[in-house]
Amino acid sequence: MITKIDHDNIDFDRTVSAVKERFSNDAVLVTFPVTTGPSLSGFVDVLSMKLLQFVPSANGKFIEGPIPAEHQERAAHLHEELIEKLRSRTNNSSTNFLSTGHSPTKTSGPD
User: Fold this and answer.
1) How many domains does the chain divide into?
2) Reported pTM
3) What angle, rounded to 10 degrees, do the helices at 69-87 and 92-100 form?
4) Cβ(65)–Cβ(54) under 8 Å?
C-alpha cells in the first residue's frame, strides 16, 4: 500500500518502481490515482475497471463511474497484468471469477 499520495511532491510511479525493485517485481497495482498531491480526486480500480471518485467534503465517500479516456489504456494494461499474475498462482475457477466477476456455474452432478 502506498500512502500519502495526497501530499505535495509525490511521484507515484517512481514509488511503485521502488517497491517493485526492493520487494518483488510480482507486486501489482490494484488501484492507481487519477491525480496526486492536494488535488487527489479519486482512483481507478484495476480489478473492477471503474473510477472511484471522491465526493468532496464527504469523509472519504466515493462514487463509481467510468474510467476517463486518458487512463483507460493504463487501466487495461494493469488489469491484464493483475489477471496474468493471479492466473499463474491460482486455479482456473478463481482466475475466471477475477477476470469476469462471475462465479463458475454448476453444469452437472448431484445436488
Assistant:
1) 1
2) 0.72
3) 170
4) no
Angle at 98 between CA 101 and CA 49, to 5 degrees: 70
Please tell me which of 17-21, 73-77, 80-84 the model is most confident about, judged by mean pLDDT: 73-77
Q: Indicate the Cα dihedral angle 99, 100, 101, 102, nearest 10°.
A: -130
Pick from 41, 40, 19: which is nearest to 29 by CA? 19
Three-state SS for 47?
A: coil
Phi/psi class of residue 9: alpha, beta or left (left: φ > 0; alpha: ψ in -120 to 50)? left
* Grid cell in block for residue 53: 471518485
Domain limits for position 80: 12-100
Let me know if residue 5 belongs to a domain: no
